[in-house]
């Protein structure tokens, strides 16, 4: 193997970024990217994995990865929404940080156009870069729009459920309901009831309202 070929292999370095939001599945599937990369000849310098919202740019592992990046390295993520769900302008700024470090982004089977071996300023290189930049912008916009759509649907679902009288939050125990109503029937104030039962005044008020509205009932003796 020639000296140039050896250098090419040495420089094929990847850093893998994995993310799930706290309510999603675990990271095991994304961590399989390490094997995927190694099978394709990459040396994986490090895997950065965290549970955080893609809507936040200040994720600890993401920031650490960007800081560690060296020129010529590749950032691998399972999909664009794993890397970012930020609004388009902020998402583009995030990608710019990666590019400014001299690295590039690779999304398996999505954003992985053939490397151009010609000179950087060749026409072929310019065309490929333009196509890649356009595809990247589409993916960034799609990830952001998908996040907004999910939030909109979730809000609509909650609003609909509330209008149908469905309750949200932690279920209140029957004993707690009985104790609150018993204290109130004895003429104790909301603050006194809360202190005796070691709960918040908001909880006492909520229970009283739910019972008054017929959504909860007191146990029959």
UniProtKB/TrEMBL annotation:
Listed Gene3D superfamilies: Resolvase, N-terminal catalytic domain
One Pfam family per UniProt: Resolvase
Keyword DNA-binding annotated: yes
Domain Resolvase/invertase-type recombinase catalytic: 13-157
PROSITE patterns linked: RECOMBINASES_1, RECOMBINASES_2, RECOMBINASES_3
Record flagged with keyword DNA-binding: yes
GO terms for MF: DNA binding; DNA strand exchange activity
SMART domains: Resolvase (SM00857)
Keywords: DNA integration, DNA recombination, DNA-binding
Catalytic site positions: 21
An individual GO BP term: DNA integration
Entries under PANTHER family matching the protein: DNA-INVERTASE FROM LAMBDOID PROPHAGE, RESOLVASE HOMOLOG YNEB
Family that this chain belongs to: Belongs to the site-specific recombinase resolvase family.
Name under which the protein is recorded: Resolvase
Organism of this sequence: Neisseria bacilliformis ATCC BAA-1200
């Amino acid at each position: 193997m020639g000296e140039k070929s050896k250098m090419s292999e040495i420089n094929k370095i990847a850093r893998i970024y994995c993310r799930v939001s706290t309510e999603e599945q675990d990271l095991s599937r994304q961590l399989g990217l390490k094997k995927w990369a190694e099978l394709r000849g990459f040396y994986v310098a490090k895997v950065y994995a965290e549970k955080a919202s893609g809507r936040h740019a200040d994720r600890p592992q993401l920031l650490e990865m960007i800081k560690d990046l060296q020129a010529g390295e590749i950032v691998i993520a399972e999909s664009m929404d794993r890397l970012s769900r930020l609004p388009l302008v902020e998402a583009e700024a995030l990608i710019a940080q990666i590019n400014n470090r001299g690295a590039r982004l690779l999304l398996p089977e999505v954003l992985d156009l053939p490397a151009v071996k010609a000179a950087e300023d060749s026409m072929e290189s310019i065309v490929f870069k333009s196509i890649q930049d356009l595809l990247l912008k589409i993916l960034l916009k799609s990830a952001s729009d998908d996040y907004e759509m999910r939030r909109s649907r979730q809000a609509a679902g909650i609003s609909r459920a509330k209008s149908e009288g469905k309750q949200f939050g932690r279920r209140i125990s029957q004993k707690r309901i009985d104790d609150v109503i018993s204290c109130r029937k004895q003429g104790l104030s909301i603050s006194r009831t809360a202190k005796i039962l070691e709960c918040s005044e908001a909880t006492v008020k909520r229970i009283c309202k739910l019972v008054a509205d017929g959504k909860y009932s007191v146990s029959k003796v």
